[in-house]
Design goal:
homodimer, 2 domains, 6-stranded parallel β-sheet, nicotinate phosphoribosyltransferase
């Protein structure tokens, strides 16, 4: 293990806002060990959005079922002088012993619907708050963005090129995974290729071209090194001139029984250039040579390029996917909804939480297209078949093995087909109806009344 | 080492787009080992921005001076079938042997100015591209955002609360460090407290309040656990009612010789509420109790709250800092500018790169306020004292020890005072003039002419 590697310092138990620990210290001091249920949900859609894609659960479950304070972390906490020896001893032996119900990764869900509910003694369920939000928001954010690109691309190929501009390495890995989860062909990210077994793609940068005396020398050199996977970047000096040189190299390769795979455009009017490049390639009989486009692409540009009739086969999406540029965060929260069987609620203005343990039921039409959801109390008899939240952890242990990325990818593909087109519109989507059951509304109102009476004297 | 800890899988040498490795493989095959200089810079400002704060250098230097391919990484690359045994052997022995000139962290810089220049044999300087951009963009992005908050806060306290919604753990750590670097008092992020020795702050969430039968019980319990650092969250049910309960607890604490430190507002009309809460506290003689505000704050809201005459002492900034919400990425690039003493350039439309090794000179007035910058060739005699780019690595080794975060924080404080107020305006800043030296312009034009002649037949 390399001591200079900064990522080796990341210990999940300290991925925590300090208040998780100060609250836990107070719960400990007061002897509060009752069972608490927290609900993790997104309050509202960012502008232009209408659905979310659940992701990150398998990582979170790994972290929570293995949660423990290492000695080095305890030493750091002791050094702050904020915590009693008794509490630190309690942390040393702390494990997560509760249960987690959650939406499997790849599930489509909507505002106000819990992505996750955690039920455990309050110290355990409280202390994982920051970790749970951080892990689930990032992956759900990226999968939700990637889904929009998949929708816009209408079956054309997609590759993740985001690593250089993601917010750190963690985000870069998750962007590659989110892309693959939603149907991307792969990623440029080598580490993601290793960690997640995702196909990796890559050819050359402008620096490669400019390091040679001439563009043609660069093209030839690359085709020598990678005779079976050459994709030439043709916009370094002039895209059409580059395309003609690519034709020349393709012919030289053909003479040796090799085939040029593709060319990449990275600047300029991609729609117009792709058509001209396609014509140059086709006139040379290179109909099979693919055109890859990159350069500040996102779902909006992909849609516009396809509407403009461009001849692009594959879109490489970078920064805008990797930082979810139009919506770089969700209004996501992890809220206590029940403590010792008592429903709880905060009344803070503008921030509604639905009390109690809940379940989501989804109604679909004969073709399997989603019609509406119903948010119910978990113990309610709610028409509509299976609830969407599945138990994944019980007594601190997984109740099933981790799902493979391929399983999750297949689920997303299935789910996304069932989401009506109008809900997928990139700018003015229709909102999917989420109804609140009568019992849940009643409990909410009763709880709010009780609080107003007791706390505010109303 | 915990096998479930996903961050232990991060190996710096694979934080790479695949094309860094395919290019390197081709350079290796062609016997290209000439010295190449790459320049890392930001092309243009995001909307409403006018300066950047250099950050991330010390992390990058650690990673680069220690760069090596571990056996496990070589095995993965071999398994892809893309690389020759000879190249993999070359990678196994690869070290960074070149030099790095860079802006020290905390330096203010501007569009088009190199933040970093790397000179090394081309495989070495190419292969660190993705890592260099990822590390420097994230930290520079966050420090630049944090500086805006510091400017808006006009001397009021600031605390980083962003961890839960940053893009992963890496970003969360860097947000805490960026805040501290620019003058924040500290962070809620426990891991950042440990890793960077930054002061950590934190009290309670709404869940803490709602887990007790009554708000007053929660306040009292917390003051028992943390009698010397109690800050009460008072908006769970009603902010003013909460303030009155806080007064009651403050009196009970005073009877035991303790002092309530503060109250926190997290929702509603923060300006109006802070004034009413201040009045409630002052009327109870609690003039020393501080008011902390949180809840979707950013530089714009902080400015508006202060302009509205709010009584907030400290602002906790979360999500908007942690994801740099108004500008979640920079148009940052790492471009080859010279290979074997030959200046190089790409001509791709809309993406200008200044050729050659460069230096930045800054002119200030008698009071030390920044007047203008001049971007020159590195070997030019340019009036204006010391160049801003400093050599930090030579022959693959640090030429000076890593700077401490305190040193960097002091530099930022000094530098930021010298940036004119008009450049700091949050919405319509004046742009600081960056002049291009005649020699650099001439070399640029000469290089472009040569390329147009040779590549395009112009």
């Amino acid at each position: 293990m390399n001591p200079m590697n900064p990522w080796n310092q990341f210990t999940p138990e300290l991925v925590s806002d300090l208040y998780e620990l100060t609250m836990a210290a107070s719960y400990f001091r007061e002897g509060m060990s009752g069972e608490a249920t927290f609900s993790l949900f997104i309050r509202k859609y960012p502008p232009g959005r209408s659905y979310f894609v659940a992701a990150g659960l398998e990582h979170l479950v790994d972290l929570v079922t293995d949660f423990r304070f290492q000695e080095d972390s305890i030493r750091f906490l002791a050094s702050t002088g904020k915590f009693s020896a008794g509490f630190l001893h309690h942390l040393r032996n702390l494990r997560f012993t509760g249960s987690i119900r959650a939406l499997p990764e790849g599930t489509i869900f909507f505002a106000d619907e819990p992505l996750l509910e955690v039920t455990a003694p309050i110290i355990e369920s409280q202390i994982i708050e920051t970790l749970a939000i951080n892990v689930l928001q990032l992956e759900t954010l990226l999968a939700s963005k990637a889904a929009r690109c998949v929708h816009a691309a209408r079956g054309h190929g997609l590759i993740d090129f985001s690593l250089r501009r993601t917010h750190g390495v963690d985000a870069g890995l998750k962007a590659a995974r989110a892309g693959y989860l939603t149907g991307f062909a792969g990623t440029s990210n080598v580490l993601a290729g290793k960690v997640y077994s995702i196909p990796i793609f890559g050819t050359m940068a402008h620096s490669y071209i400019t390091s040679f005396d001439h563009e043609l020398d660069a093209f030839r050199a690359f085709s020598r090194a990678f005779p079976d996977s050459t994709v030439l970047l043709i916009d370094t000096y002039d895209t059409l001139s580059g395309a003609r040189k690519a034709v020349q190299v393709a012919r030289e390769m053909a003479a040796q029984g090799r085939r040029l795979r593709g060319v990449r455009l990275d600047s300029g009017d991609l729609a117009a250039l792709s058509l001209e490049v396609r014509r140059i390639l086709d006139e040379a009989g290179l109909n099979e040579v693919q055109i890859l486009a990159s350069g500040s692409l996102d779902e909006f540009k992909i849609q516009a390029l396809l509407e403009a009739g461009s001849a692009i086969d594959t879109f490489a999406v970078g920064t805008h996917l990797g930082v979810s540029a139009d919506a770089p965060y969700f209004d996501i929260a992890y809220k206590l909804v029940e403590y010792r069987d008592r429903p709880v609620l905060k009344l803070s203005s503008g921030k509604r939480t639905w009390v109690g343990r809940k379940q989501i039921y989804r109604r679909c039409d004969d073709q399997g297209m989603m019609l509406e959801d119903r948010l119910c109390l978990a113990h309610e008899e709610c028409a509509g078949g299976e609830g969407l939240l599945e138990e994944v952890v019980r007594g601190g242990e997984r109740v099933r093995p981790a799902e493979s990325l391929e399983t999750i990818r297949a689920r997303f593909e299935r789910e996304f087909r069932r989401l009506p087109e109008a809900c997928k519109d990139l700018r003015s989507p229709t909102l999917h109806p989420v109804h609140i059951s009568r019992a849940l509304q009643d409990l909410e109102e009763k709880t709010a009344r009780k609080i107003r009476r007791e706390e505010l004297g109303d």
